[in-house]
Amino acid sequence: MKKELLNIEKETSHTKNSCKTQIMIGHTSRNIEDYLKSLKIRHNGKYDRQPHFIISKDGLIVETLKPKKESNFFGFKEIDSKIVSVLLENEGWLKPKKDNPRLCDWLGNIYKGEVFEKKWRNKFFWSTYTDKQMESLVSLLNNLCVDLNINKEFIGHNVRVEGVEKFKGIVTRSNYSEYFTDLSPAFNFERIKEL
User: Which pLDDT does position 155 carry in this prediction?
Assistant: First the structure.
């Protein structure tokens, strides 16, 4: 039995509205250089699941798609038409490398940064998010909420939420499904709640 921390009421209106109502935060699951390169070369340069923004560990904001444009980022048209996606450069979950005491990312690259330890979704070790990323994220969220008239409401955790697709405000990709691990437990949710 799944325990839901937040249950959002379903809307009664069934009108098709393509305006943005939600900002979805996630992470790249690899370093930013590799992620940007993969966006360019996947499917012979015709990869359509790109985020609107990526924030590097140094706090640099990279716009890959205009916020009002629709991407196939999430893979479901009814969700993609309403979200602006923001990814943070982050390797995500980490695991011990065979015959080596060091941790590596899911691609097998040795991780050299700080490690956050907490058991969540059957993983134990997590790459950390930087203070510069958090500052840039808060600034970007403030601007997007004003420019696109998106509510400054934040679910504020990384647990799946029933009916999250109807929520108007800021969510994480892990709010949509227990299979997503972003944002990880290493993310400082309290900092964003201060919006």
Answer: 92
